[in-house]
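Design a sequence for this backbone.
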């Protein structure tokens, strides 16, 4: 399936246009303006609070929120996280590469990249957020939205024939590191698992394409898992083996790291709840403030759950309802929202947003016990406050 011509040209425009966003002043075309809440000739007012600069180049390539000008994040601007083989993971030659489907299956499979590409193709626009993206003080840019393409995972597991005792599916990356427990050092592959039921979800893709290009090396070339609705960590890159097991998988990034540890009150006592990072949570952020002819506009995004509405609070005032851009939407992608800032004044201001999902759940404030009683920073979907000075 190809994108319709209008979307195609718009996207190409964004890709080509990236040089124009080196500064914070934005150039706009009329086509771009209709796709995204931006006004030709507007100017971006940078926020006062900023994450620390990233060491260039080859770093994590974190999203600079003020540069957000499209629903889809171009590949060159997409963030990248590699825990082993830093900064950007293993470089793999597709010729020598195979995907193994092994473990508790009747018919183990070995698949080449061309065999995977010859299988039925499926696409999904999905916002990948690192679960470590917790707002200020320091990590806000571990997020991006891409159109991912690949072949569905479920039919491959079906073909391999999972045995009755197989309950867990482990996704093993080609990247390796060394882990040490009680003085014992062990070489490990980066890996995460899902229950068989979660792995069989028809949305899961063995993905080889990102925004119409082969998967870039830092994002997992030649193949990664795309698990729409899950935090970044579940989307294993540089995939080499899928293994069905009869026990829980307890590797570092499943059972020790990327584990949320929270205090919860139970009958007057504190219970410590530890959970492996899992599905995305309802979240929104103010992305940028723009000015045109003295008129200010706030633009932001909301994701992680089906969004009903987004509200914005300025300087602790009333919650104002933002307008959600309905021109480009997808189930697993962020929504773009905007708000005209009616009573702007030349002073320092705070801006905070909160999303409400279709079940009526409200994105928690930072002092909500669900956030405040969390001792690890993973899965922080609290409301993000930005500071700005208008002149
Ligand atoms: N093999 C492998 N897969 C991985 C990782 C990794 O270090 N190795 N990092 C994970 C994390 S923590 C995140 S947030 C996402 C980021 O995806 P991206 O680098 O394409 O943005 O990849 C996930 N998949
Ligand atoms: Mo992550």
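Sequence:
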């Amino acid at each position: 399936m190809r994108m319709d011509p209008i979307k195609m040209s718009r996207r190409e425009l964004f890709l080509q246009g990236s040089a124009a966003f080196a500064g914070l002043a934005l150039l706009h075309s009329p086509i771009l303006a209709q796709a995204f809440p931006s006004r030709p000739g507007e100017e971006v007012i940078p926020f006062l609070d900023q994450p620390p600069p990233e060491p260039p180049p080859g770093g994590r390539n974190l999203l600079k929120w003020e540069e957000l000008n499209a629903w889809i994040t171009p590949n060159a601007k997409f963030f990248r996280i590699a825990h082993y083989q830093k900064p950007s993971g293993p470089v793999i030659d597709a010729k020598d590469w195979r995907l193994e489907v092994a473990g508790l299956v009747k018919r183990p499979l070995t698949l080449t990249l061309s065999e995977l590409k010859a299988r039925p193709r499926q696409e999904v626009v999905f916002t990948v957020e690192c679960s470590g993206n917790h707002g200020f003080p320091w990590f806000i840019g571990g997020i991006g939205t891409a159109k991912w393409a690949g072949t569905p995972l479920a039919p491959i597991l079906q073909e391999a024939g999972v045995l009755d005792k197989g309950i867990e599916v482990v996704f093993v990356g080609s990247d390796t590191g060394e882990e040490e427990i009680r003085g014992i050092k062990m070489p490990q592959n980066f890996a995460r698992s899902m229950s068989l039921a979660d792995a069989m979800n028809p949305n899961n893709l063995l993905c080889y394409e990102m925004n119409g290009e082969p998967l870039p090396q830092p994002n997992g070339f030649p193949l990664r898992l795309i698990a729409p609705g899950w935090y970044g960590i579940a989307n294993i890159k540089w995939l080499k083996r899928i293994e069905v097991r009869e026990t829980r998988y307890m590797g570092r990034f499943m059972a020790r790291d990327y584990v949320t540890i929270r205090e919860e009150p139970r009958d007057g006592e504190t219970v410590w709840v530890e959970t492996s990072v899992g599905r995305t949570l309802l979240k929104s952020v103010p992305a940028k403030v723009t000015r045109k002819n003295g008129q200010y506009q706030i633009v932001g995004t909301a994701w992680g759950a089906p969004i009903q509405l987004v509200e914005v609070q300025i300087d602790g005032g009333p919650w104002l309802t933002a307008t959600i851009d309905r021109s480009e939407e997808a189930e697993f992608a962020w929504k773009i929202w905007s708000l005209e800032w009616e009573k702007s004044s030349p002073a320092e201001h705070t801006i905070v947003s909160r999303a409400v999902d279709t079940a009526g759940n409200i994105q928690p404030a930072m002092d909500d016990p669900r956030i405040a009683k969390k001792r690890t920073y993973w899965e922080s979907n609290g409301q993000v406050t930005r500071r700005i000075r208008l002149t």
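Confidence is low (pLDDT under 50) at residues 1-34.
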